[in-house]
Amino acid sequence: MTSFPGSPRLLKGGIVLIDPYTAVVQRIIALQYNPDTLSRTLQVQGVGAETGDRSEALRLKGPPVETIKLDAEIDATDHLEFPNLNATTAELGIYPQLAALETIIYPSSQQLENNNTQAKSGRLEIAPMESALTLFVWSKNRVLPVRLTEFSITEEAFDKALNPIRAKVSLGMRVLSVNDLGFDHKGGNLFMVYHRQKEQLTQLNKAGSFGVLGIGGI
Fold first, then answer.
1. Whose CB has fewer CB within 10 Å in the chain, the N or C terminal residue?
2. Is 56 a member of any domain?
């Protein structure tokens, strides 16, 4: 059955991995189903509360530290109805979808092998392995550079070969600001776009009045 031709196209949230130096896109991961809720926490980066200095009470060190949490569901049921058209799902369940998400927080096997080779050759200092820049995309108004801080998977159903066919993935992310990346970094540029969008949206919000607050003025 085809959907109503006039129905709006449903956008999906997802994650994009790009090279931190060239901004070349390495991988795009679209969430199968958009989560019902998305929790955001903003931690104020103030100065006065820490030092107790009255002259610093209204000062900010930088943008707030924003964290995001969501639960994403992955389900192979629809694909398993037509195994001839979805051979990979019929053979492996949702392993490929889970692997695409899990490997975001893994260094590549080549990086691990290179570091092991350097260690065996007697190199005393080995630089930590750098990952791709992770972008969380939640509509065109929110394209955020993030670091994954929490990652848990609950596999809820399996096929006869014990391949997972339904799972819930819980993600925790910390938005990376210019304080983390700098202004010249691609991620820092994207954060500033996000910041300016907030300021523009503020201008569209209908201003209140003293009367609504029950006072005549200040």
1. N
2. yes
Residue 95 forms part of a structural domain: yes
**Is residue 42 included in any domain, yes or no?**
yes
Q: Which amino acid is at 144?
A: L
Counted residue by residue, the chain has a size of 218
Which pLDDT does position 184 carry in this prediction? Answer: 94
Q: What is the pTM of this model?
A: 0.86
Identify the pLDDT of residue 1. 45
Give the domain extent around 33. 27-106+151-204
H-type helices in 15-126, by residue range? 48-51, 77-80, 87-92, 95-102, 109-120
Answer yes or no: is 134 within a domain. Answer: no
Residue of 3, 30, 28, 26 lying closest to 14 (CA atoms) = 30
The total number of structural domains that make up the chain? 1
Q: Look up residue 177 and give its two tokens.
A: 């600001």
3-class DSSP assignment, residue 194: helix
**pLDDT beneath 70, residues of the chain:** 1-8, 48-52, 81, 83-85
